[in-house]
Specification:
The complex is a heterodimer of chains A (about 290) and B (about 160).
Chain A lengths: L6 E3 L4 H11 L3 E4 L5 H6 L7 E4 L9 E4 L2 E5 L4 H6 L1 H6 L1 H6 L6 H4 L4 H7 L6 H8 L2 E6 L2 E6 H4 E3 L2 E2 L6 E8 L4 E9 L9 E9 L5 E9 L6 E2 L1 H7 L6 H14 L10 H23 L4
Parallel strand pairs in A: 1-3, 2-3
Antiparallel strand pairs in A: 4-5, 5-10, 6-7, 6-10, 8-9, 11-12, 12-13, 13-14
Chain B lengths: L2 E7 L2 E7 L5 H8 L18 E4 L2 E4 L12 E3 L12 H8 L9 H14 L5 H7 L11 H16 L1
Parallel strand pairs in B: 1-5
Antiparallel strand pairs in B: 1-2, 3-4, 3-5
The chains are: A alpha+beta (about 290), B alpha+beta (about 160).
Chain lengths: ~290, ~160
C-alpha cells in the first residue's frame, strides 16, 4: 500500500521546524514515530500535503524530572518510557500502561507525545494522561502555551492544537503526597486496540483520605473519557470497597461504548465497572506502599 | 519528486533516489533487491517486515525510506558472517523454528536483538520480545527454544 504523494522535510533544528509548520499551516503535519500516522496515510484516511519529520531533533528525545513534573519530550519513544525508572517514581499509572502500548517493535518507534496528539479514542496514553492530570506544551513559531489535557482532548481524533503548533512536550505532575495508580487493558491480543482500558490515579492526604482522584477510559467513547463524576465521588472521602464500587458504577454510567467486533456495549460497560473497581484498589495499595 | 538518501544496509553503503512516499520495506525489496524482508499484513501487525534500525527491531512497512537517510539497517541477509550462519540461524534450523518460513526473517532479527542484550532470556522474555511478530504455521514453542538456544550458543563463542 502506498500513501498519496506528499512533500517531505527533515528540519535540522526546532526553530526551523517551527518556522516550516508556521508557513505550512493546515497543510503541514508533524511526523514523529509515525506508527499511527503512516498506517492512516497508507489507508488514505490521512492525506497531509507536507510532512515535517522531527526524528532528527534529538533534543526532543528526553524523559526528565523538572520542577514539579515529569517532562516527556516529543521524541521520547514508548520503549524509553518502559525503561525509564523516573516514570514509575512519578506515576504508577504510566508505568503500568507503558508495556501495554502496541507491541515491542511499535514501541521502539512510536512516541508518547505523538500518541497524545493523535487523540485516537482507542489509544491508551490519553486515558492515563486524563487520570494523572497531565498537560501538553504546544509550541509554534510564536511561542509556547501549556494546555491541560482535558482541554487538549477535544473529540474523535481531534485535539485543540492550532495550525502551526506541535506537541513539544507532555508534563505529568509529581504527586504532592502518597500516590498510586493503575492501567488495566483488556485486549484480544498484543498489538490490538483495547477492548476497554481503564487508568486510575489516587493521592492520599496525611490522614489517609483521598485528596486527588483521576479515572480515564479507553475505547468506550468518542474520545478518551475523563470519568469526572466518578472522580468527584472519591475526592475527600476515606477509601473503602463500597466507595470504589460507587465510583466504578459512575464510570460505567459515564461511558458510551459501541458494540463492535471486540464485544457488545453492555459487556464493555461491565468491564469498565469491574476494571475501575480493581484499578482503584490497586491505586490505593500503591499509595499505601503495599505493593 | 525524489530525494537522494544514503543508507547503510548490512554494512554496505547505498546512495539512492527515492520518492518520499516509498515505504522502507519496498525500498529494501525493490531498490536494493533484498527480498528476505517480507511484506505480510502491510498494516503494522505481523512483523514479517522487521528490520534492525541502528540495532533496534522496527516494522519497515511503517517507516518511509527517506527516514532511513544516514541510518544503519540490518536485514536477514546480514545475519550470516564470513560465510557462516549466525547462531540464531543455526538454532532455527536445529530446533525446527520455522515451517513455511514467511515470518522467520522477522523472528530471527528480533531474536538476535534480544539475545544481544540478554543472552539467557526466559520463556516469558522471549514471548514478550516476539509479541509483535506473528507465526501462522507452527506456533511459537520451537521459535522460543531456538532463540534461547542461540543465546546460549552465541555466548559460548
Amino acid at each position: 500500500m502506498f500513501p498519496p504523494s506528499f512533500e517531505y522535510s527533515a528540519p535540522g533544528s526546532l526553530s526551523e521546524a517551527m518556522a516550516l509548520l508556521g508557513d505550512l499551516g493546515d497543510e503541514g503535519r508533524v511526523l514523529a514515530g509515525g506508527q499511527s500516522l503512516i498506517p492512516m496515510m497508507k489507508l488514505r484516511l490521512a492525506q497531509p500535503a507536507h510532512l515535517v519529520d522531527i526524528n532528527g531533533l534529538k533534543e526532543l528525545s528526553y524523559v526528565r524530572r523538572e520542577d514539579g513534573h515529569l517532562a516527556i519530550g516529543a521524541l521520547a519513544r514508548h520503549a524509553e518510557i518502559v525503561k525509564s525508572p523516573l516514570v514509575g517514581e512519578v506515576s504508577k499509572s504510566m508505568a503500568a500502561a507503558a508495556p501495554w502500548i502496541a507491541d515491542p517493535l511499535v514501541r521502539n518507534r512510536g512516541t508518547l507525545c505523538g500518541s497524545v496528539a493523535h487523540c485516537d479514542p482507542e489509544g491508551d496514553w490519553n486515558s492515563v494522561m486524563l487520570a494523572v492530570g497531565a498537560s501538553v506544551v504546544a509550541a509554534s513559531s510564536s511561542g509556547e502555551r501549556v494546555i491541560p489535557i482535558a482541554d487538549f482532548v477535544v473529540d474523535f481524533f481531534t485535539n485543540s492544537l492550532r495550525p502551526g503548533e506541535m506537541v513539544k512536550e507532555v508534563r505529568v505532575p509529581v504527586p504532592a503526597g502518597a500516590s498510586g495508580g493503575s492501567y488495566d487493558k483488556l485486549e484480544r491480543k498484543i498489538g490490538d486496540y483495547a477492548t476497554v482500558g481503564v487508568a486510575t490515579h489516587l493521592e492520599l492526604d496525611r490522614g489517609g483520605r483521598i485528596s486527588q482522584a483521576g479515572i480515564g477510559l479507553t475505547s468506550v467513547h468518542n474520545h478518551n473519557l475523563k470519568a469526572t463524576a466518578a472522580e468527584q465521588i472519591l475526592v475527600g472521602q476515606g477509601p473503602s470497597d463500597g466507595l470504589f464500587a460507587e465510583a466504578a458504577e459512575a464510570a460505567a454510567q459515564a461511558c458510551q461504548p459501541s458494540s463492535d467486533v471486540r464485544g457488545p456495549a453492555d459487556y464493555k460497560r461491565a468491564v469498565v465497572r469491574e476494571y475501575t473497581k480493581r484499578g482503584l484498589a490497586k491505586a490505593l495499595a500503591g499509595a499505601r506502599g503495599e505493593k | 519528486m525524489t530525494m537522494e538518501i544514503q543508507v547503510t544496509v548490512n554494512g554496505t553503503a547505498y546512495t539512492k533516489d527515492v520518492e518520499p512516499r516509498v515505504l522502507l520495506v519496498d525500498f529494501i525489496r525493490s531498490s536494493l533487491g533484498l527480498t528476505g524482508t517480507h511484506i505480510g499484513c502491510d498494516t503494522t501487525s505481523c512483523g514479517a517486515c522487521t528490520v534492525l534500525l541502528d540495532g533496534q527491531p522496527v516494522k519497515s512497512c511503517t517507516m518511509f525510506a527517506v527516514q532511513a537517510n544516514a541510518a544503519s539497517l540490518g536485514t536477514v541477509e546480514g545475519l550470516k558472517q564470513n560465510g557462516a550462519l549466525h547462531p540464531i540461524q543455526e538454532a532455527f534450523k536445529e530446533h525446527h523454528g520455522l515451517q513455511c518460513g514467511f515470518c522467520t526473517p522477522g523472528m530471527m532479527l528480533v531474536g538476535s536483538a534480544l539475545i544481544a542484550e540478554n543472552p539467557h532470556p526466559t520463556d516469558d522474555e522471549v514471548r514478550w520480545a516476539i509479541s509483535g511478530n506473528l507465526c501462522r504455521c507452527t506456533g511459537y514453542m520451537n521459535i522460543v527454544s531456538a532463540i534461547q538456544a542461540a543465546g546460549a550458543a552465541g555466548e559460548g563463542n
